[in-house]
Design brief:
The chain is of the alpha/beta class and 443 residues long. The protein is built from 18 helices and 15 strands. The chain has a five-stranded mixed β-sheet. A hairpin with a 2-residue loop joins strand 4 and strand 5. Helix 9 crosses helix 17 and helix 10 packs across helix 18. It is globular. The N terminus is likely disordered.
């Protein structure tokens, strides 16, 4: 009895075993997405640990590219490894779900997920960024818009007034690039992402921004993939003009493994005057203290809307086009403690924490109770572009089709294929991926 009393006393006196959680994202302090890493380490982790005694949270920082991160996540989720909470691009969700690598939050955690206060402040459209086939798999951190980032100082040097600069057609955009090239022969005045190494950045920042300008999308109204059209040819001929015929862009950078970083450096160093990117380029890539910081950014850098091929010829009859995506967080289906992981995920996306994140990096939030604080650039661009935006198809085949878009653009900018040949190969590849019944030709 005496020993039983001693053992009971020890059991009562011994604290509960410590619990460990891990967050992972493509973020590195003083590197890529530095503000995101700093927010997690300086705000999320200490505040969550303070509110949850015995819980230890760590951040796994990933410095590689988007495609490398996707491969790592797929490997982790398929082998029972990886962080409990993972940074995730919403367009990947259908692929991961179809492969059995993600579970809906309600199934993984329980019905309490639906009681989270944050859903009342997130629109259905924003919730859909991290959803698929009726299930919610994560919470988006925010959304974005795409535009032409402009070096005002280079335009002025070429005799173009940056204050009034707004191309109203592809030809006007090309004419500006030609004028800059004439004034600065060694420059690469225009950057429209192409090629395989840039991955989804080619599809989103390059191809989508062009194909929407033709009035087309990647799919038709019935969700069938467009594999042959005048719009596709127009886009490929635009790439050919920029990179092959007139050498207005850095063709080599589109084909190198570090090509995207090279294009960032071209803009920073004044070699490129116009670069099509998402608002992330402003709030992270060129921000003070980043690797590609643009000195005196708010004095030398401005923006313009991406024009349709001709006025009124864009998506929905628009004069200008853009597209939005959404990145956020998912719970690893292999987590040892789904309920605690959900507590961390919902805590990260509470109003208090998202407000705090805005002090590290102001951005467009999906919560309607969080404002962009004192950030004229993001307020101006989101106000002008969100009414024009659209989104990628929520389809499990999209990722594979996107890879074919990247190959198609690379074939043209490398000079290996004509636009007609590249489109023919694209048609064949996409038909094999989705089935002929899920494709359509508009020619």
């Amino acid at each position: 009895m005496k020993w039983k009393s001693v053992l009971l006393a020890l059991a009562v006196a011994t604290p509960a075993a410590a619990q460990d959680l891990t967050i992972s994202c493509r973020c590195v302090s003083d590197g890529v997405n530095s503000a995101l890493a700093d927010w997690i380490k300086e705000s999320v982790i200490p505040d969550f640990e303070a509110a949850n005694e015995g819980v230890t949270v760590s951040l796994s920082e990933f410095a590689g590219g988007d495609e490398q991160l996707t491969q790592q996540l797929a490997l982790d989720f398929s082998t029972g490894a990886g962080a409990d909470i993972a940074g995730f691009d919403g367009f990947l969700i259908p692929n991961f779900v179809e492969a059995g690598l993600l579970k809906p939050l309600e199934e993984l955690v329980g019905p309490q997920v639906n009681d989270w206060e944050g859903w009342e402040h997130i629109s259905d459209g924003s919730r859909a960024l991290m959803s698929y086939d009726g299930g919610t798999f994560g919470i988006a951190l925010g959304t974005d818009v795409r535009m032409i980032f402009v070096r005002a100082d280079l335009l002025e040097e070429a005799g173009i007034d940056p204050a009034s600069f707004q191309p109203n057609s592809w030809e006007e955009l090309l004419d500006a690039a030609r004028q800059i090239k004439e004034a600065m022969p060694d420059s690469h005045p225009l950057q429209l992402n192409a090629g395989v190494p840039m991955g989804e950045a080619t599809t989103m920042q390059g191809y989508w921004m062009a194909i929407l300008g033709t009035g087309e999308s990647i799919v038709d109204e019935e969700g069938r993939y467009i594999v042959e059209s005048q719009g596709i040819l127009d886009v490929l001929n635009l790439y050919k003009t920029i990179y092959v015929d007139e050498e207005l862009g850095d063709a080599r950078a589109q084909q190198l493994g570090d090509g995207r970083n090279r294009t960032f450096a071209n803009f920073r160093d004044g070699t490129t005057a116009m670069l099509v990117e998402g608002d992330w380029f402003y709030r992270s890539v060129t921000a003070p203290g980043s690797e590609f910081e643009v000195a005196d950014r708010d004095e030398v850098m401005t923006w313009a809307k991406m024009p349709a091929m001709e006025p009124g010829a864009g998506w929905n009859g628009q004069d200008y086009v853009t597209i939005s995506g959404g990145t956020g967080w998912v719970v690893n289906p292999n987590t040892d403690d789904p309920e605690l992981a959900w507590e961390l995920l919902s805590f990260m996306n509470s109003k208090e924490q998202i407000d705090e994140f805005q002090t590290f990096q102001p951005r467009i939030s999906i919560r309607d109770d969080v404002e962009v604080p004192n950030e004229p650039f993001l307020t101006e661009t989101s106000g002008a572009l969100l009414p024009l935006t659209t989104a990628r198809p929520n389809d499990s085949n999209y990722n594979a089709v996107s890879a074919e878009i990247q190959r198609m653009t690379e074939a043209v900018v490398s000079g290996q294929m004509s636009p007609e040949e590249a489109m023919a190969r694209y048609k064949e590849a996409v038909t094999e991926i989705v089935g002929e019944e899920n494709t359509v030709s508009l020619m």
